[in-house]
Write a structure and sequence with these properties.
- The protein has a 4-stranded mixed sheet. The protein has a 3-stranded antiparallel sheet with strand order 9-11-10. The chain has a two-stranded antiparallel ribbon with strand order 1-2.
- The protein folds into 2 domains: about 15-125, 3-Layer(aba) Sandwich (Trna Endonuclease, Chain: A, domain 1), CATH 3.40.1350; about 130-210, Arc Repressor Mutant, subunit A, CATH 1.10.10.
- The protein is an alpha+beta fold.
- Helix 5 packs across helix 7 (about 175-190).
- It is built from 7 helices and 11 strands.
- A hairpin with a 4-residue loop joins strand 1 (about 15-20) and strand 2 (about 25-30).
- It has helices at about 30-40, 90-95, 95-115, 130-135, 145-160, 165-170, 175-190, and strands at about 15-20, 25-30, 45-50, 55-60, 65, 70-75, 80-85, 115-120, 165, 195, 210.
- The protein is elongated, with a radius of gyration of 21 Å.
- Pfam families: Tn7_Tnp_TnsA_C (PF08721), Tn7_TnsA-like_N (PF08722).
- It comes from Geobacter hydrogenophilus.
């Protein structure tokens, strides 16, 4: 659990992110942190992650310094854990001297304990995939009658092969209301990776959907 409670603040966006990976809400102190956590939810190499995981303290350049990183990421494949700081480039530049002292504590910690320390900035978070993740993540929980819809979707893709979203929906029903119900199931199946698409580009009716081969990492 986090080593400190994330306070509510009017100076930045803070709140709770509902994490499917962790099975609980994760606190965040900025929009950047929230959107970084969303990206983690689509990285199939990750076992879990935790906000405000440890408090480090020590002397750096003759000054006593304390530091609590934003996040600890644990991987499924035995890869060493990752300590993460999420900061805008503007803040990194503005507070460079003070932040570098704190970051040195994290680098010393991972050198002794193992793992890595990573600074995540805007360029590491924002791209076309993130907009797709926002859409798909709304349907993490399976929609009504998912088993029946899943069988129909998989059956069509097995028979016809990869299809544009437009054609898949037409095969599932001519009625727009029916298609809307199947769309919810498609978004859910994209999250569970039963089906896959190129999420590096904005999703449209031309997006090609296929049965997942189980190897693609969405992050």
């Amino acid at each position: 659990m986090p080593v400190r409670k994330i306070p509510k603040t009017y100076r930045s966006i803070s709140g709770r992110f509902p994490s499917a990976i962790n099975g609980r809400c994760i606190g965040y102190e900025s929009k950047l942190e929230r959107d970084y956590y969303l990206r983690l939810e689509f990285d199939r190499t990750i076992a879990s992650y935790e906000e405000q995981p440890i408090r480090l303290s020590g002397s750096v350049d003759g000054k006593e310094v304390s530091y609590t990183p934003d996040c600890l990421v644990i991987f499924l494949d035995g890869k060493p854990p990752r300590i993460v700081e999420v900061k805008s480039q503007e803040e990194l530049d503005k507070k460079a001297e003070d932040l570098e002292r704190r970051f040195s504590l994290a680098r010393n910690h991972v050198e002794v304990q193992g793992g890595e320390f990573v600074i995540i900035k805007e360029k590491d978070i924002y791209d076309d995939a993130l907009a797709n993740y926002r859409l798909i993540y709304r349907f993490v929980k399976p929609p009504h009658n998912i088993e029946t819809k899943r069988k129909l979707i998989i059956g069509i893709l097995e028979h016809a092969g990869p299809l544009p979203l437009r054609d898949l929906l037409k095969s599932l029903g001519e009625d727009r209301i029916a298609q809307a119900h199947f769309t919810r199931a498609i978004w859910h199946m994209l999250y569970t990776r039963e089906i896959e698409a190129d999420l590096s580009k904005p999703i449209s009716h031309s997006t090609i959907l296929r049965i997942s081969n189980g190897t693609e990492n969405l992050s």
